[in-house]
Amino acid sequence: MSDSIDSLDDLRRLYPQPSERAVRKQLSRLDRHCRRFIELAPFLVIASAGADGLDASPRGGEPGFVRVVDDVTLHIPDAAGNNRLDTLENLVTDGRIGLLFLIPGVDETLRVNGTARLTIAAPRVRIEVTVAEAYLQCAKSLMRSRLWSDESRRERSVLPTLGEMLKDQTGMEGRVESQEEMVARYKRDL
Predict the structure, then answer these.
(1) 110-144 burial string, b = 16+ CB within 10 Å, else e?
(2) Do 61 and 93 fall within a single domain?
(3) Nearest to 116 by CA among 68, 144, 75
(4) In this structure, are 95 and 40 located in the same domain?
(5) Are 112 and 79 members of one domain?
(6) For each of the chain's 190 residues, which pLDDT tens digit applies?
(7) Domain for residue 2, yes or no?
């Protein structure tokens, strides 16, 4: 059994101080490199917090689906999903937001933290982010995972279909949707 870490001092004793470069790379606005990264990113993860807990939710679209309005403002369009609204409900009650942008084939990521508010952008909602900090994250975690390498790819068949997994998890009765049927249905909703 290991000792627990109960204070920031306990934690800091285990790690050296961050390098000057690691500290100085944190910006208070989006520079040209951050803006270009966002323009090229077809995928991001949104982290939010609310009264019922935390949420990390994926979002995707064609590169440029997240619009850079200016050096401190981003617009993220809402898209059809499962209507749980975990992220959106969190942002209504607690506007803090964290974003992690990914570009396939690029091992670095872009982290953006700030606050958000929801606005109406017909026919749905848009998340308007005010940037408090932005920084490029080093490539180590994606390099370790080999996320973009062909060797890391798995055939979809290594897992049951989503329909099979959800039936097991929920205990709901009825016919299980095949993987092909789910993909066809999702394509209509994209």
Answers:
(1) bbbbbebebeeeeeebbbbbebbebbbeeeeebee
(2) yes
(3) 75
(4) yes
(5) yes
(6) 578 999 999 999 999 999 999 999 999 999 999 999 999 999 999 999 998 899 999 999 999 999 999 999 999 999 988 899 999 999 999 999 999 999 999 999 999 999 999 999 888 899 999 999 999 999 999 999 999 999 999 999 999 999 899 999 999 999 998 889 989 988 888 8
(7) no
Cα distance between residue 148 and residue 137, in whole Å: 16
Instruction: Give the residue among 92, 38, 84 at the shortest CA–CA distance from 61.
Output: 38
* Structural domain span for residue 167: 154-189
Clarify whether residues 165 and 104 are in a common domain: no
Please indicate, yes or no, whether the overall pTM of this predicted structure exceeds 0.90: yes
- How many domains are there within the chain? 2
Reduced to 3 states, what is the DSSP secondary structure of residue 5?
Answer: coil
* Residue 77 near residue 61 (C-beta atoms within 8 A): yes
Do 46 and 59 touch, CB atoms closer than 8 A?
yes
